[in-house]
Design goal:
The complex is a heterodimer of chains A (119) and B (110).
Chain A (H helix, E strand, L loop, with lengths): L2 E5 L3 E2 L5 E8 L9 E7 L6 E6 L5 E3 L7 E6 L4 E6 L8 E8 L5 E4 L3 E5 L2
Parallel strand pairs in A: 2-11
Antiparallel strand pairs in A: 1-3, 3-8, 4-5, 4-9, 5-6, 7-8, 9-10, 9-11
Chain B lengths: L8 E4 L5 E6 L11 E6 L6 E4 L13 E6 L2 E6 L8 E8 L5 E3 L3 E5 L1
Parallel strand pairs in B: 1-9
Antiparallel strand pairs in B: 2-6, 3-4, 3-7, 5-6, 7-8, 7-9
Classes of the chains: A mainly beta (119), B mainly beta (110).
Chain lengths: 119, 110
């Protein structure tokens, strides 16, 4: 059974960089059968896709966030990571990592981690 | 990329059927058979309920079904149960090779 777990600071100051890591267990990121995604959900609002990465390092980003987002992968640790720069209060959200099938359906999700942007 | 359009809320009584719509464009919903539906209970991560328009992952009850006509996809839940009360989100593959989510629909079981 594939499991994903997000980790990282729960509080980030405005203008700083938000950094999160997703650790995958029960399956290998390097298998090549899936993409690996980050999605966020502001309190009380809907889901917003941030971006996804393939084990080779190729990435796709949400155009609205592209200038501030970097997603990377570490196959040796079976992890992938998210960096979001120049954060504001509008970036406060629960951040999820997920596995992505062909057709871009997200079939396994982490439990999510709340990141608050505040001084 | 604009979010897909879903009704903000739907409701139904136990045992009834409800349908949630998800409207996009020919660049997403209408152009590909890659529509997914997710169920999210409060404080929980989303759960994949339907993929590729009408396929159910293992373990999802057959009370949940999906369909598509033109630029609109639909999720139907038959034999509504109390535990179906949740938020539901649709998602589609787009011509940019990226996914787009709907705004979400709150299902209330009366």
């Amino acid at each position: 059974q594939v499991q994903l777990q997000e980790s990282g600071p729960g509080l980030v100051k405005p203008s700083q960089t938000l950094s999160l890591t997703c650790t995958v267990s029960g399956g290998s990121i390097s298998s090549g059968d899936y993409y690996w995604s980050w999605i966020r959900q502001p309190p009380g609002k809907g889901l917003e896709w941030i971006g996804y990465i393939y084990y080779s390092g190729s990435t796709y980003y949400n155009p609205s966030l592209k200038s501030r987002v970097t997603i990377s992968v570490d196959t040796s640790k079976n992890q992938f990571s998210l960096k979001l720069s120049s954060v504001t209060a509008a970036d406060t959200a629960v951040y999820y990592c997920a596995r992505v099938k062909i057709g871009l359906s997200h079939d396994y999700w982490g439990q999510g981690t709340l990141v608050t942007v505040s001084s | 990329q604009s979010a897909l359009t879903q009704p903000a809320s739907v409701s139904g009584s136990p045992g009834q059927s409800i349908t949630i719509s998800c409207t996009g464009t020919s660049s997403d919903v209408g152009g590909y058979n890659y529509v997914s539906w997710y169920q999210q209970h409060p404080g929980k991560a989303p759960k994949l309920m339907i993929y590729e328009v009408s396929n159910r992952p293992s373990g999802v009850p057959d009370r949940f079904s999906g369909s598509k006509s033109g630029n609109t996809a639909s999720l139907t839940i038959s034999g509504l149960q109390a535990e179906d009360e949740a938020d539901y989100y649709c998602s589609s593959y787009t011509s940019s090779s990226t996914p787009v989510f709907g705004g979400g629909t709150k299902l209330t079981v009366l």
